[in-house]
Amino acid sequence: MQPRHRNALGEIAVANEPDRAEDETAHKLMLAGMELFGQYGFKGTTTRMIAEAADSNIGSIAYYFDNKTGLYHAIARHIAQRMRDVFGFNDERPPTEASDRDQALAQLELIVRRMVRQFAQAPEARRWLMLVIREQANPSEAFDILYEETFERVHVHLTRLIAVVMDRSPDEHRVIIEAHTIMGQIVFFLVGRFPLLRRLGLEGEFPPEVVDTVEQVVISHLHALAFTTKG
């Protein structure tokens, strides 16, 4: 068998073409784990459940990820990378700082549009959001991975942009909380999708016009920050 190694996402990267089936198996285990961990939590999810959902055998989890914890952490690293992609964070090119209010608003609008499209429309986000929510409610070592690799970096950047818009220091608690609130508003469109759909008299997915309205509402909140007075 050809040498294998774990890539940056904790997945298995294989050396030769014939081993692609192994890479696919590792990917299926991660997808199955992501879904089940989000639904039942780490303790409530067994390796047998994951293996059956991935149409694999229990030994494959130990083979690729050492154990259930190794798989869970690999999934956390994968989610962290995908979230950085959504927010437009390139590891090789850090986000540019805004020099004035208009530039800060433009950058914030771009981030909001990316987030809304991902959280309101992309099926992938639904697979990992419940796991992320569980980790925020009851943090484990996986939370440290998510926080250090994505949450902190994104939150700090949003806070700096909002500080420019509000003409305040990015270290002020009010500014940090405003950044957290903006992120929370968008995430809740996914978490609370069913009550909102029912309230709107809709079923299934958010139609494009609703997604457009969500963008407009959140962006209007961003612009309102420019008129928030100190005190």
Automatic annotation (TrEMBL):
Coiled coil: none annotated. The keyword DNA-binding applies. The keyword DNA-binding applies. It comes from the Bacteria. GO terms for molecular function: DNA-binding transcription factor activity; transcription cis-regulatory region binding. InterPro entries: Homeodomain-like_sf (IPR009057), HTH-type_TetR-like_transc_reg (IPR050109), HTH_TetR (IPR001647), Tet_transcr_reg_TetR-rel_C_sf (IPR036271), Tscrpt_reg_YbiH_C (IPR015292). This is Transcriptional regulator, TetR family protein. Residues 23-83 form the HTH tetR-type domain. Pfam families: CecR_C, TetR_N. Residues 46-65 bind DNA. PANTHER family: HTH-TYPE TRANSCRIPTIONAL REGULATOR RUTR (PTHR30055), REGULATORY PROTEIN TETR (PTHR30055:SF233). Keywords: DNA-binding. Gene3D superfamilies: Homeodomain-like, Tetracycline Repressor, domain 2. PROSITE patterns: HTH_TETR_2.
